[in-house]
Design a protein that fits this description.
- By secondary structure, the chain is α+β, with helices and mostly antiparallel strands.
- It folds into 2 domains: 2-91 and 177-343, Beta-lactamase, CATH 3.40.710; 356-441.
- Helix content is 25%, strand content 22%.
- The strands form 4 sheets. An 8-stranded antiparallel β-sheet has the order 1-3-2-12-11-10-9-8, with helices on both faces. The protein has an 8-stranded antiparallel β-sheet with strand order 13-14-15-16-17-18-19-20. The protein has a two-stranded antiparallel ribbon with strand order 4-7.
- Strand 18 (420-425) and strand 19 (431-436) form a beta hairpin.
- Helix 2 crosses helix 6 (160-174).
- The N and C termini lie far apart (75 Å).
- Residues 26-341 form the Beta-lactamase-related domain.
Length: 464
């Protein structure tokens, strides 16, 4: 019941593999799933997969398709970010600019991506996941008469119609169908030939398991029509491992690493009642035991799915099951990641000196302690002439800075993200201080004669 993809990456230990299989077996048994597939990728390749089935000798493998529901939304978000990177739209653009006539055109692209547009969670009746897409052929049918429930930009409210609008936006700007854009811009470049809009054998059938008895009922598989961008796709554990690797490293043929990293940044407050779960640009963000994870869950009648990634460890966990409810695939996917991270933590990269071309004596002279008031910070050189500013004692505002072509640096993360750090010199050319968004950092704390806002008491430091 274990299948493996041959890779150049170091194999997992037998004890780790046993723990992974045990977790999948327990999930299938306790979740009462007809079948369950789990997989782990590391270093960009699948290193383990395992499965369990209610039919002896007929367990699925990592190449068996399952419906992945809302994991589809991550693919739609990638397509939108591609349009942004090409300069065809802006994330702050109102929807009306590119997709007129929806009736909700004042909401922005970013708000739709992050579920902060205030739109309803679902379409008007009947239940869209269990009825043909022909029931709601137009966007107006998806949105209904009262599509807006909350003020835009104020709070997180998950919206399936919002991602239907993003699929229509892709079609309007790109000039091809959402599925065609998906195939040529994401699936083919990443080699995901087992991810499709319709099931392609071998694939699992969707089942409903009775909540109070060990009996099953087949679930219908509907063509979701215009709702496809919110949850249509079928995929496999192997393909989702490839996609998870992309969510860690990016791929210039699809979306550059910086834009993928942007997807992982929270865009609003967490959902009410779930302070450990946030949302970025198309990605769910979770604070779990052992660290932060990004990914997405998915469900449609007959199927549940989970894809979660630990960027720091370079690990991807995938869990797929063919039951409407019961199997906790999201939990299992995160557990698979945790099992490997704890049993076989990633080895840190070897320390290496900076390339000679990046060593600048003037920059080197700026390193060391600096003081914001009496707070002690250290400035050290980073890669590509960047710098890192971090507190020397206790918790504080640590940030990385990227060098600007015109001089100075721009903050990349934390409190100082987007803020400019620059060197201020005296008339004689010597360094006076560092300016960071109006904060003054001096070489000594409140040294007389330094450029300290408000000045320094002329009596200097004193005892009680």
């Amino acid at each position: 019941m274990i299948g493996r993809m041959t890779t150049a990456f170091e194999a997992l230990l037998p004890t780790t593999e046993r723990s992974l299989l045990h977790r999948v077996a327990r999930a299938q048994s306790e979740g009462r799933a007809p079948s369950f597939v789990g997989a782990v990728a590391r270093g960009g390749a699948m290193v383990w997969s395992g499965s369990r089935s209610c039919v002896d000798g007929h367990a699925p493998d990592a190449d068996t398709q399952y419906r992945i529901g809302s994991i589809t939304k991550v693919f739609t978000a990638v397509l939108v970010l591609r349009l942004r990177d090409e300069g065809l739209l802006g994330l702050d653009d109102p929807l009306e600019k590119h997709l007129p006539g929806t009736g909700v055109g004042e909401v922005t692209v970013a708000q739709l991506l992050g579920h902060t547009a205030g739109l309803a969670a679902e379409t008007p009746s009947p239940w869209w996941e269990r009825t043909p897409g022909a029931t709601r052929p137009e966007l107006a049918d998806v949105l209904g008469e009262t599509p807006v429930l909350h003020p835009a930009g104020r709070s997180f409210h998950y919206s399936n119609p919002g991602y239907t609008l993003l699929g229509a936006l892709v079609e309007a700007v790109r000039g091809v169908s959402w599925e065609e854009a998906l195939r040529t811009e994401i699936l083919e470049p990443l080699g995901m030939d087992r991810t499709t809009g319709e099931p392609v054998a071998p694939h699992a059938g969707g089942w409903a398991v009775h909540p109070w008895a060990d009996v099953m009922l087949p679930e219908p598989t509907e063509d979701l029509g215009v709702m496809g961008a919110a949850g249509r796709l079928w995929s496999t554990a192997a393909d989702l491992c490839r996609f998870g690797g992309f969510l860690i490293e990016g791929d210039d043929s699809v979306l550059r690493a910086a834009s993928v990293a942007e997807m992982r940044v929270p865009v609003g407050p967490p959902a009410v009642g779930d302070p450990l779960m946030g949302y970025g640009l198309g990605l769910q963000l979770a604070q779990k035991e052992g660290g932060a994870l990004v990914g997405h869950g998915g469900s449609l009648p007959g199927f549940v799915a989970g894809l979660w990634v630990d960027v720091e460890e370079g690990l991807v966990g995938v869990a797929l099951a063919n039951a409407t409810s019961g199997p906790m695939t999201g939990v299992v996917a995160t557990d698979l990641v945790r099992i490997v991270a704890e049993a076989e933590p990633r080895l840190p990269e070897p320390w290496r000196p900076l390339p000679e071309s990046e060593v600048d004596q003037e920059l080197l002279a700026l390193t060391g302690p600096w003081y914001w008031g009496t707070y002690a910070f250290g400035l050290r050189l980073g890669a590509e002439r960047g710098v890192v500013l971090e507190p020397l004692r206790g918790a504080g505002r640590r940030a990385r800075f990227k060098a600007l072509p015109e001089g100075g640096w721009i903050g990349l993360d934390g409190y100082y993200a987007g803020e400019t750090l620059r060197v201020v010199r005296r008339p004689d050319g010597g360094v006076s201080h560092l300016d960071l968004g109006s904060f003054v950092f001096t070489r000594e704390p409140y040294e007389p004669g330094d450029a300290v806002p408000g000045g320094v008491d002329e009596k200097g430091w004193r005892g009680l």
